Amino acid sequence: MKISIVGTGYVGLVSGTCFADVGITVTCVDVNEKKINALKKGIIPIYEPGLETMVHNNIEKGRLLFTTSLKEAIEQSEVVFIAVGTPPDEDGSADLKYVLDVARQIGKHMDHYMVIVTKSTVPIGTAKKVKAAITDELEKRGVELDFDVASNPEFLKEGNAIQDFLKPDRIVVGTESEKAQKMMSRLYKPFLLNGHPIIFMDIPSAEMTKYAANAMLATKISFINDMANLCEIVGADISSVRDGIGSDSRIGNKFIYAGAGYGGSCFPKDVKAVIKTAADYGYKLRVLQAVEDVNDAQKHVLVSKIKEHFGSNLSQMTFALWGLSFKPKTDDMREAPALVIIDELIKMGASIKAYDPVAMDEAKRILGDKIFYGDDPYDVLIDADALVVITEWPEFRIPNFKVIDKLVKNKVIFDGRNIYDPNEMVENGFSYYSIGRKARHPMK
Ligand SMILES: NC(=O)c1ccc[n+]([C@@H]2O[C@H](COP(=O)([O-])OP(=O)(O)OC[C@H]3O[C@@H](n4cnc5c(N)ncnc54)[C@H](O)[C@@H]3O)[C@@H](O)[C@H]2O)c1
Ligand SMILES: O=c1ccn([C@@H]2O[C@H](COP(=O)(O)OP(=O)(O)O[C@H]3O[C@H](CO)[C@@H](O)[C@H](O)[C@H]3O)[C@@H](O)[C@H]2O)c(=O)[nH]1
């Protein structure tokens, strides 16, 4: 079977590589020539555990190809996935210009029956627009060709993308054609050996499923963060509360970790987009508006705690930051809480020394010389006034507290991901601020 994937970002590259890995011949297309040239040599543009080896293996086997020519890629392809970006427009809606541009290119070049699948996260009605754009181009060429469109939203998480793709909880496909349904069943068969289902539905429902899934997950996070803030006020501990509610199987223990707010390229953008879609239809998604408001506020909670401890004038002070990426196991800093925290601390006169296991290059690209970059977690502690943990990378979980104590001027830690035990902190003589638990201070 031969397929092509248009857009070689996180989703396109991971999907393409995983399809190639099960024996399908995949051509990945991108307009970014630099990216494609690097990929041809096996150099991957993103940090994603396990991806590089898999890309190498499949290039070697001749099953994974890269090109900048969409025309060349779709030749003999039975299925073409559109996996380009859908960034937020100024009003929060998903910008479809890349998706529709690809659709038009497909219409200009296709010469046989294909299923054109939107894998990008797109608003309800997009598959229809894709179909119209292709039909329009075919008509301009005076060509009559049969083709189908389908919607196949992607649910992978950065940092665990390969496992998520190879062993999905479910695959959702929206299609209105039996022929396309058969093709999609055949394509995904190798990934369904673990018994998880492929769920077929109509196209608008598939498009909506993606937004509903991300909106639900974002809601869980804002809910727990709201509860965490109340826990602090009333003297409860959110970690115990999480254990208490998470063991109820109707609630579940996943995605209810309080923290410094959700970031990344998906939740913030998709929550905004679905709110905008609803508004366009004259409906107000009140729950999701609150989810977004709570998250915006949550990104400032750590700085409030810093102010509570040191006051509002932070000039002459230096903060050591552990973690810059929006979550562990990725170098992605899109919408990362770290960016909000850094911005606010700098505005209050503070200097920042930061360390992240993989996001240092990305941070330099975004922040330039606004902050100092350390070589390892302990390097940034030298002459710092306090330690602030923003991302829960495994290597920060059991640090050497004696070394922290020796290097940091004040014995205080601000933990934005609740990775330390408050009792252990005070026993080690630290003041400890975390999320959803009262600040703790050592006995005088
Ligand atoms: N990142 C994730 O974890 C994730 C997970 C599920 C769904 N999604 C969704 O998938 C889509 C892609 O996300 P991403 O993170 O992979 O984006 P990305 O920005 O990493 O990659 C998009 C790629 O598309 C390329 N591109 C743009 N226009 C093109 C064109 N006309 N022809 C060929 N290539 C073109 C860009 O050069 C870029 O390399 C988005 O809609 C996103 O919401 C993302
Ligand atoms: O209990 C939790 C779980 C997550 N987060 C935060 O939520 C954000 C998103 O995390 P995660 O969902 O793991 O990462 P993404 O790679 O953004 O994946 C989400 O967005 C993708 C793009 O749409 C979807 O495909 C995935 O299913 C969906 O989980 C991060 O900032 C996390 O720190 C929390 O604060 N608490």
Give a description of the structure:
By secondary structure, the protein is of the alpha/beta class. The chain has three domains: 2-201, NAD(P)-binding Rossmann-like Domain (Rossmann fold, 3-Layer(aba) Sandwich); 211-297, Rossmann fold (3-Layer(aba) Sandwich); 299-433, Rossmann fold, CATH 3.40.50.720. α5 (97-109) runs parallel beside α6. The chain has an eight-stranded mixed sheet, with helices on both faces. A six-stranded parallel sheet has the order 11-10-9-12-13-14. The longest helix is centred in the middle third of the chain and has 32 residues, at 203-234. The chain contains 17 helices and 14 strands. It is 43% helix and 13% strand. Bound molecules: nicotinamide-adenine-dinucleotide and uridine-5'-diphosphate-glucose. Nicotinamide-adenine-dinucleotide binds at residues 6-12, 29-32, 35, 83-86, 98, 101-102, 120-121, 154, 156, 158, 265-266.
Q: Keyphrases for this structure?
A:
single chain; 444 residues; alpha/beta; Rossmann fold; 3 domains; eight-stranded mixed sheet; six-stranded parallel sheet; 14 strands; elongated; binds nicotinamide-adenine-dinucleotide; binds uridine-5'-diphosphate-glucose
Ligand identities = nicotinamide-adenine-dinucleotide, uridine-5'-diphosphate-glucose
Strand content: 5-15%
Oligomeric state? single chain
Which structural class should the secondary elements be placed in? alpha/beta
Beta-strand segment tally = 14
Rg (CA only): 24 Å
Keywords: NAD, Oxidoreductase
EC number: 1.1.1.22
Protein name: UDP-glucose 6-dehydrogenase
Pfam families: UDPG_MGDP_dh, UDPG_MGDP_dh_C, UDPG_MGDP_dh_N
